[in-house]
C-alpha cells in the first residue's frame, strides 16, 4: 500500500469517523441545553469509565488480529479472535449484571447518578457488550480495506443513537404534555440521563445487527495454539490501554471527585460537568487522530514487510504533525466562536483549559504514531511499562495540582503526562527500531503553532478584547485569521514539495 492509498483510506475512515464524532459532538450542546449541571456531570462520569471497561472487554484482541492476520491463516485468526471475544464478553457481562447492586450503591455509583436506577446500569453494561462484539468485525473491514462499508455501519449506529435521543428527550415530553400516556414524561434530569444511556445502547445494538451477515460468514473454528500466541501478544496491551485511560479519562472518573477539596458531591458533579464540556472542544484533534489510526495501523503492519519502511513512517509522521498543528490553531485561535458550542454561560469560564487539552491531545496523537515500533517488534510489554510510568505520574500530578488549581490542574497534568509519554516512547523506540523522524522540523512546527496561539492570546487580552477575550468581535476574528494564514504560508513554503505529492491537493500545486 502506498502513502497515497493510505491517504485515500484515511480520508474515507476519517470522513466516517469525523461524521460520527461530529454527530456525537453536536449532541453535547443538545445535552447542555437540557440537562442540569449535576446531571451532565453524572453522565460525563459514566462515560469516563466506559473506555476502561472496553479495554478489558476487548483485551487487545483487535491489535492482535491485525498482527497475526498477516502471519497466520487469516480465516483461523478471524474465527479464533471472534470466538474468544464472544465467550469473554458473555461471561463478563453476566458477572457485571450480578454485581449490579453493590456497584450502583457504592460511592462511585452515587457520583455517577446510578443509585436507585438499576436500569441505567443495565443499559450501560449492554452498551459496552455490544461495542466489544463489534470490535473484530470493524477490524476485519479495516484489514480488508473496505472503508465505505465501515463508514456506513458506523454512521448508521450514530444516527440511530441520535434519533432515539431526540425521540426520548424532545418528542416524548411533548407527547406526554399533550396527554399521550404511552410515552415517558421525563420530568427529572435523572430520567433524562437514563434515556440517553438507552439511546446509546440501541445505537450499539443496531451496529451489531448490521454486522450479523458478516459474522455468519466467519469460519467458526477455534485454534488453541494460535489463541495462546495472540493472548501472549495482546495481554500487555491491556496494561497499555488501562494506563493510557488513566491519563485520558481518569481525571473525570476519579481524580477530580477524589482530589477536589470539600465533601459537597453536587458541587463536584458541577465541576466535572464544567471540565467535561470544555474537554469536548478538543475533540476535533482527537477525531483526526482516531481517523488516522484507523487507516494507518493496518498500513503500518503491511508496510513493515517492504524495504526500508522507516523512511515511510518518518514521512507520515511529519505530515501527521502538520495536520495536528493546523487543528490546534483552528480551535484555539477561534475560541470566541467555539464557545457557542457550550450554549450555557456557566461553561464559558472553563475555556482556559481548551488550548492546554488541545496540546495534550497533539502529544497523545504523536505517541500513538510512535507506538508502531513496539507493535512491529513484538515488544508490547515495553508499551505497558511506558504507560504505567505516565499513569503513576498522572496520579502524582493530579494529587498535587487539583487541590491547588482545581480542574485546570487536571488539564495541565494531562498535557505533561502525554508529553512525557511521547518523549519516553521516542527515545526508547530509537534504540530498538530507529526511524529517521524529521525532528528539527517537527519541533519547529509544534513550537511555532504554540507560540502563534499565545502571542495572539496576549494581544487579544491586552489590545483586541481586554476584559473578555472570548467576546465574539470582528477585530479578534480578523487578527486570528491573519495569524492562521501566516502559519499556513510558512508551512506551505517549507513543505511545498511534500504537498505536491499528496492526492487530491497535489494536482493544484506547481
How many angstroms does the end-to-end distance come to? 25 Å
Largest sheet: none
Tell me the radius of gyration.
23 Å
Q: How much of the residues is beta strand, in percent?
A: under 5%
- Envelope shape: globular
Query: Can you give the mean pLDDT?
Result: 87
Main location: membrane
Keywords: Cell membrane, Membrane, Transmembrane, Transmembrane helix
InterPro entries: Poly_Biosynth_Transport, Polysacc_synth
Transmembrane segments: 12-34, 46-65, 77-100, 120-139, 151-171, 194-212, 233-255, 275-295, 316-335, 347-370, 382-401, 407-429, 441-459, 471-492
Account of the protein in words:
The chain has 510 residues and is mainly α. Helix content is 80%, strand content 0%. It has helices spanning 3-25, 27-34, 37-58, 61-69, 74-98, 100-104, 107-111, 118-133, 135-143, 147-177, 189-216, 224-248, 250-259, 265-279, 283-303, 309-332, 335-338, 354-370, 372-376, 380-405, 407-432, 439-464, 474-494, 496-500. Helix 5 packs across helix 12. The two termini are 25 Å apart. 45% of the residues are buried. The mean pLDDT is 87.
Amino acid at each position: 500500500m502506498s502513502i497515497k492509498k493510505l491517504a485515500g483510506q484515511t480520508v474515507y475512515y476519517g470522513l466516517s469517523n469525523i461524521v460520527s464524532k461530529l454527530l456525537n459532538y453536536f449532541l453535547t450542546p443538545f445535552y447542555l441545553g437540557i440537562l442540569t449541571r449535576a446531571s451532565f456531570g453524572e453522565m460525563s462520569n459514566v462515560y469516563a469509565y466506559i473506555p476502561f471497561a472496553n479495554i478489558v472487554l476487548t483485551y487487545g484482541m483487535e491489535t492482535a488480529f491485525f498482527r497475526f492476520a498477516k502471519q497466520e491463516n487469516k480465516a483461523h485468526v478471524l474465527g479464533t479472535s471472534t470466538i474468544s471475544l464472544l465467550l469473554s464478553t458473555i461471561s463478563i457481562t453476566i458477572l457485571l449484571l450480578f454485581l449490579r447492586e453493590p456497584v450502583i450503591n457504592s460511592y462511585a455509583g452515587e457520583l455517577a447518578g446510578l443509585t436507585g436506577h438499576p436500569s441505567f446500569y443495565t443499559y450501560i453494561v449492554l452498551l459496552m457488550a455490544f461495542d466489544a462484539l463489534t470490535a473484530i468485525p470493524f477490524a476485519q473491514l479495516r484489514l480488508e480495506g473496505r472503508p465505505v462499508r465501515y463508514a456506513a455501519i458506523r454512521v448508521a449506529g450514530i444516527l440511530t443513537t441520535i434519533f432515539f435521543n431526540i425521540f426520548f428527550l424532545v418528542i416524548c415530553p411533548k407527547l406526554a404534555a399533550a396527554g399521550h400516556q404511552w410515552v415517558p414524561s421525563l420530568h427529572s434530569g435523572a430520567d433524562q440521563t437514563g434515556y440517553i444511556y438507552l439511546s446509546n445502547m440501541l445505537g450499539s445494538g443496531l451496529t451489531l445487527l448490521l454486522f450479523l451477515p458478516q459474522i455468519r460468514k466467519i469460519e467458526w473454528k477455534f485454534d488453541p495454539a494460535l489463541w495462546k500466541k495472540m493472548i501472549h501478544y495482546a495481554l500487555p496491551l491491556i496494561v497499555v490501554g488501562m494506563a493510557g485511560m488513566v491519563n485520558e479519562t481518569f481525571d473525570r472518573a476519579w481524580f477530580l471527585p477524589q482530589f477536589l477539596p470539600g465533601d459537597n458531591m453536587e458541587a463536584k458533579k458541577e465541576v466535572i460537568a464544567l471540565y467535561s464540556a470544555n474537554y469536548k472542544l478538543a475533540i476535533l484533534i482527537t477525531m483526526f487522530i482516531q481517523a488516522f489510526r484507523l487507516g494507518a495501523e493496518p498500513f503500518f503492519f503491511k508496510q513493515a514487510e517492504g524495504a526500508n519502511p522507516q523512511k515511510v513512517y518518518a514521512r507520515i509522521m511529519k505530515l501527521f504533525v502538520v495536520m495536528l498543528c493546523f487543528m490546534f490553531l483552528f480551535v484555539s485561535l477561534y475560541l470566541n466562536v467555539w464557545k457557542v458550542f457550550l450554549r450555557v454561560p456557566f461553561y464559558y469560564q472553563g475555556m482556559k483549559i481548551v488550548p492546554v487539552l488541545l496540546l495534550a491531545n497533539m502529544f497523545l496523537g504523536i505517541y500513538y504514531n510512535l507506538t508502531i515500533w513496539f507493535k512491529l517488534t513484538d515488544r508490547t510489554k515495553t508499551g505497558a511499562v511506558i504507560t504505567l510510568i505516565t499513569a503513576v505520574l498522572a496520579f502524582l500530578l493530579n494529587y498535587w495540582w487539583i487541590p491547588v488549581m482545581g480542574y485546570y490542574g487536571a488539564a495541565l497534568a494531562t498535557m505533561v503526562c502525554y508529553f512525557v509519554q511521547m518523549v519516553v516512547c521516542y527515545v526508547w523506540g530509537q534504540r530498538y527500531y530507529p526511524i529517521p523522524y524529521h525532528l528539527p522540523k517537527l519541533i519547529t512546527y509544534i513550537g511555532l503553532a504554540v507560540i502563534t496561539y499565545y502571542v495572539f492570546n496576549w494581544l487579544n487580552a491586552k489590545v483586541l478584547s481586554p476584559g473578555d477575550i472570548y467576546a465574539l468581535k470582528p477585530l479578534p476574528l480578523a487578527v486570528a485569521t491573519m495569524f492562521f494564514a501566516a502559519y499556513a504560508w510558512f508551512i506551505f513554503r517549507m513543505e511545498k514539495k511534500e504537498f505536491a505529492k499528496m492526492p487530491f491537493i497535489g494536482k493544484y500545486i506547481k
